[in-house]
Amino acid sequence: MQIRVWQFNNDDSFVPSFLEGMSMAHEEPVRSEEWFRWKFEQSPYGKAIMACAFDGETVAGCVAYGRGVMQYENKEWNCALSYETFVRPDYQGHGLFKKLIALAEQEMANEGVQFVYNFPNTNSITGFKHMGWICRNDVRCFKIRVQHLCKTALHVLDLKKPFEPNVSNWDNIKRFAPVDLPIENTNAKVITPVWSADYIRWRFFSIPNREYYVLNTDTVFSISMIGKRGHLKTAHVLYSISKKDKTMGSSIRETLKSLKKNVSPDVIEYASSVFDSTLEGVMGFFKVPASGNFCYKILDESLKIDDFKMVLPSINAHTY
User: Fold this and answer.
1) Distances (CA, A) of 304 to 73, 76, 77, 301
2) How far apart are CA 177 and CA 212, in angstroms?
3) Which residues pair with 101 in a beta bridge?
4) 103 and 51 in contact (C-beta within 8 Å)?
């Protein structure tokens, strides 16, 4: 067994095994090689950092992180977000997961990553805790706004069902890709991942994924994921920004109006760690119980953040 960092120039022959192992571990269909190139190689922030285990021609497991930038205390810091974590079922139970995390952290530190975060499932969160990650459940809250009261009341239990996205409408939305976007500036004690126009174009407009509704006007850019929870048509707002006054309230207001007119969902959802007072009450959103794990680790001691808030709209946790 060889545990090492993935070499993008030399490891092309392992891509099919990687995709097969990921499929087996997650019990999902095998992804395409095009998807692999898009996710791990083509981000505007650079190629992903991938710690992998190789057993001959087999990729036995991987812990991978995508590069990014965040703002904190009016400075920009190099950060990384978990992109993929898997160990093939026939290789589980031998401590491979911890070895992969350790190698990934070492490589990220070597390459100047200062802050790393993820949203682990219940199967992997214990492993991250054992590796010194800090896990919190107070940075994310989930809000909904009921648009069609009678239908929602009739199927109220469907709100607890998993969100099922609709199939891709990429051909219809690619013309709305942003050319430029303002960078948000929040309170100095709030960690804010930087989402540039280049990142948004790569993330949503370069490969078919699922159905999105895009609003791109002179004043607002927003993107919402369209799907259902049981019988309820659902619009999940992933990102919204005002191009002029830079207030969340104005961009959300225009997004809601456009969704109501052009999508007509039964329920509108939004997940965040801030903006509570903006979205609740006047705009008709109310908080509902939500499950989800958030873990982070500081790799650069000069970044001192004992107590903080973090902007976590759904664009972060949204499946790639």
Assistant:
1) 10, 13, 12, 7
2) 12
3) none
4) yes
End-to-end Cα, the chain, rounded Å: 29
Q: For 214-224, write each residue's pLDDT tens digit.
A: 999 988 999 99
Tell me the C-alpha to C-alpha distance, in Å, between residue 245 and each of 71, 87, 241: 19, 46, 9
Q: Tens of pLDDT along 95-146?
A: 898 899 999 999 999 999 999 988 877 777 888 888 888 887 766 677 889 9
What is the DSSP code string of 191-225? EEE---HHHHHHHHHSS--S-EEEEE-SSEEEEEE
Which residues touch 75 (CB under 8 Å, ≥6 apart)?
Answer: none
* Rounded CA separation 223/204 (Å): 9
How far apart, in whole angstroms, are the C-alpha atoms of residue 200 and residue 242? 15
Q: Which residues of 220-239 are buried (b: 16+ CB within 10 A; e: fewer)?
A: bbbbbbbbbbeebbbbbbbb
